[in-house]
Every structure is written in C-alpha cells, then in structure tokens.
Amino acid sequence: MLDLTTPSPIPTPPSLPSNLSLSKTHKTGHNLKQLKLLRTLYYFRFGTAELISGHVGVSRRSIHNSLLVLVDKGLLHRRYEPGYKLIHKPAVYCLAPAGIRALRSCWERDGHELDDQILQQLHNTYSDRMATEKFVTHSMNVMQTVIHIKQQQPKTFDAKTTSLMTDRGDEYPRPKPDLYLKRRKLSQTKPNEYFVDTFEEDVELWIIKKRVRLYILHQQAYEWSADEYPTIVLIVKDKKKIPRLRRYIRKRIEEQWLEEDVNFIIYSEARL
User: Fold this and answer.
1) Three-state DSSP string of the chain
2) Is 77 in contact with 128 (CB distance < 8 Å)?
3) pTM (predicted TM-score)
4) pLDDT for residue 1 is more than 70
5) Each residue of 168-222: pLDDT tens digit?
6) Per mean pLDDT, which range of 9-13, 165-169, 206-210, 238-242 is the poorest?
C-alpha cells in the first residue's frame, strides 16, 4: 500500500535563488518572501491564508498580512464573495497578471529556461480570476492533500502538482494527475512513484471510472519511460462510491488481460 504518511515538500523547479535571505530584495523589486508566496499559488492555483500557512509552515497571521500586501501591489487577486461571510468561508487568493509577470521575470533573470510547457502553464494561470467555484475548491483540496501528506513523516517523497509536470514531455496522462509523487530513497518493497487524484463528494462515479480507464489505457500504451508504472491513488471523498469503484477496477483489469497490473489504491478523506 501507498505510504501516505511519508510525504515531502513540493520541489521548486524552476526555483528561486536559494542564496538570498527573506530580508533581501530580488531584482524584480519584490522580496524573496513575497516571491515564495507567488510561487506557492503558481503551484496550486488557489489558496487561503490558512492553507498556505499549513503548507509553508509560517503563522496564519503572518501569511494573511503578506497576502494583503501582495493584493495591494496588484500581484494577487482576492476572491471574497458576499455570501462567504454567512457561511464562514475565508477569502481565496490566486495570481493576478502582474504576479504572473513578476514570477516569469524572476525566473528569467535567474537564468532559468522556460520551455513551451511552462510558458503555457503560466498563460493558463491568467484565467484563474474567472475560475468556477468547483475548480477553486478542487485546487484547494489538492493543497490540503499535500499538507496532510507533509504533516506526517516528511522528506520521503518529492511531489509535483499539475503546474510542475513539465519535465517529461508528453509522458504524463492527459488530463494530468493532481499530484505526482516519487520516493526520494528508492524502496525495494514499496512502489516508488505514484499518481494521485482527488475527487470531491459531488463528483459522479462515471467520471471517476473514466479516469480509471484513462490510466489503464495509458499504461498499456507504454507511455511511461520508468521501469514500473506509477501506483495510482484515488482519493474518493464519498465513501459510498468506493465499493462500487473497487469492483469496477477489478473487472476492467480482468477484461483487459494486462501483461502488467495497474495498481490502484483508493482512500477516503477519513483514511487520509
């Protein structure tokens, strides 16, 4: 089984300069602390002060104040609808166009080559301000998943969000997984790579089944260059769907006569 109690921090390619302290100002005119917040929102697309605090390990108050500064500078967009207060829903933040340009300028000034996939990912981020509530919720659930993983036993996996899956050309399944995990120290007894997808309670079962079929077809096409195909982790928050999904997966694998099994693990939010 997947050891989801042994996570890692999100890696940082393209990275910010590691030799600068948080008090120093980068060539873009923004200090490193501000750029790291921009980078975090590039990784996950959306986040609240509490979620970002849990991810970066800084107090919520400090993160909240920093986010407001970035909003005032026009680098972030703050989403806070009138109905949020009634349901005690916090403000949600995403990159504004000026924030996207600041990140790109930072990476280019530091000599990082931005290939077509990274440029496309940056371009996609321009539309985040108009994203649906469903997409926003899913993006934040992915961040929460990473936080849950990190809070257990760290420094076991390197993890990538969809925004960072630009290193293997077209090898990743399309649409890309929510997360790709790779064990830092290779194990002889446990899988070393994982694809992780999160499905909210309102996601229909047929959509999850479609994702299962995609992984099976992707594995059959030998589109993954590593020796073993990653183990697939499906986080299905509606527990009622899990028994039917397990039966469906067994049936599909038996029908396909696969030369090599595609390994699926299903978790609910409670198990995570």
Assistant:
1) CCCCCCCCCCCCCCCCCCCCCCCCECCCCCEHHHHHHHHHHHHHCCECHHHHHHHHCCCHHHHHHHHHHHHHCCCEEEECCHHHCCCCCCCEEEECHHHHHHHHHHHHHCCCCCCHHHHHHHHHHCCHHHCCHHHHHHHHHHHHHHHHHHCCCCCCEEEEEHHHCCCCCCCCCCCCCCEEEEECCCCCCCCCEEEEEEECCCCCHHHHHHHHHHHHHHHHCCCCCCCCCCEEEEEECCHHHHHHHHHHHHHHHHHHCCCCCCCEEEECCCCC
2) yes
3) 0.83
4) no
5) 777 899 999 999 999 989 988 989 999 999 999 999 999 999 999 999 988 888 7
6) 9-13
Amino acid at 103: L
Q: Which amino acid is at 108?
A: E
What is the residue type of 70?
L
